[in-house]
Amino acid sequence: MRRRTEGFTAGPSLGYDDVEQAERSAERARIRAAQAARSAARSLEKTARLHERVAEVDEQTVRQGASSTDVHDESAAFHRQSAQGDYKLAADKRNEADAGES
């Protein structure tokens, strides 16, 4: 258990205005955090769509008879998996933003 040291003096007491200011500052911080989370979600969704596009190109290349089909198949699978991961992260960020605004 921690004991009070000799010579301890309390700081200045906080008034109503100080508490109100702190609450306003905290609310602004929550809003900024939610905006940042939504921005991150939009960015992740954009990246996911780009991964899907690359996967489509790889799949189309295989359908057209490309010689290294295994490379394109692996690439398509990687990009599909990356897209799924990015969509999940985006959903998590949106949930984070919603929770922060509650």
Automatic annotation (TrEMBL):
<feature type="region of interest" description="Disordered">
    <location>
        <begin position="1"/>
        <end position="31"/>
    </location>
</feature>
<protein>
    <submittedName>
        <fullName>Uncharacterized protein</fullName>
    </submittedName>
</protein>
<feature type="region of interest" description="Disordered">
    <location>
        <begin position="55"/>
        <end position="102"/>
    </location>
</feature>
<feature type="compositionally biased region" description="Basic and acidic residues">
    <location>
        <begin position="21"/>
        <end position="30"/>
    </location>
</feature>
<feature type="compositionally biased region" description="Basic and acidic residues">
    <location>
        <begin position="89"/>
        <end position="102"/>
    </location>
</feature>
